[in-house]
Design a protein that fits this description.
transcription regulation, DNA-binding, about 210 residues, 2 domains, mainly alpha, Arc Repressor Mutant, subunit A, globular, TetR/AcrR family transcriptional regulator, Tetracycline Repressor, domain 2, 10 helices, about 75% helix
Length: about 210
């Protein structure tokens, strides 16, 4: 079903408010910008902002559901004969090579991380999102592998993969914050990723292979 005019306008308005809010937050600092300032800059009322976003943090994390479902989606869409680990490795390296935003390795991610690090509420939201993403991955692995009730293997696999991805991106962001460019970081990050996924391969490489 095609998107109606009303739905399209609402989606565009929501995106415009979020884009303006993100720009203000990155420029001035999250805690230094009020919702009223966001509304004024976007030329809407405060009530309109809250019609689209439940909290101030939601203005920044408008793609939270997409972020939390990222790993699960990759596993669900893995290729025939491909394991969960292989699919996630392939997707991560593709994002690295194309500088796609889905894992946080893209232009501007250093400024975003710097802003988040200075706000306790944003730090808390990021932790919640990471935990939700890992739990979602564990649920998907449970379903895709047909794990028995009480089998913690999907939980262990999800935790290992999530830890590797977290450490890789933490390393990349630390280097970005130190002033290194993406082009300088990328070759080393790919080498570290190959090594990390290689270590996982010996333990969970054959888990949840699509038949």
């Amino acid at each position: 079903m095609s998107e109606g005019l009303r739905e399209r306008k609402k989606r565009e308005t929501r995106q415009r408010i979020s884009d303006i809010a993100t720009w203000l937050f990155v420029t001035k600092g999250f805690d230094n910008v009020t919702v009223a300032e966001v509304a004024r800059t976007a030329d809407v009322s405060v009530n309109t902002v809250f019609n689209y976003f439940g909290t101030k943090e939601d203005l920044l994390f408008d793609r939270q559901e997409e972020v939390e479902d990222l790993l699960s989606g990759v596993v669900r869409e893995r290729r025939p004969g491909e394991s969960a680990l292989e699919a996630l490795r392939r997707d991560f390296l593709d994002a690295l090579d194309t500088r796609h935003h889905r894992y946080g390795f893209h232009e501007g991610s250093d400024a975003f991380t710097r802003m988040v690090s200075r706000s306790p509420s944003l730090n808390g939201r990021v932790r919640e999102m990471n935990e939700a993403r890992e739990k979602a991955l564990a649920r998907t692995l449970t379903e895709e592998a047909g794990a028995e009730p009480g089998d913690l293997t999907p939980v262990f696999v999800a935790a290992q993969i999530s830890a590797v991805l977290h450490r890789l991106m933490t390393h990349a962001v630390e280097r970005m914050l130190a002033g290194e460019t993406l082009d300088v970081i990328a070759p080393d990050l790919r080498r570290h990723a190959e090594r990390a996924f290689g270590l996982l391969e010996s333990g969970i490489g054959d888990y949840c292979v699509r038949r």
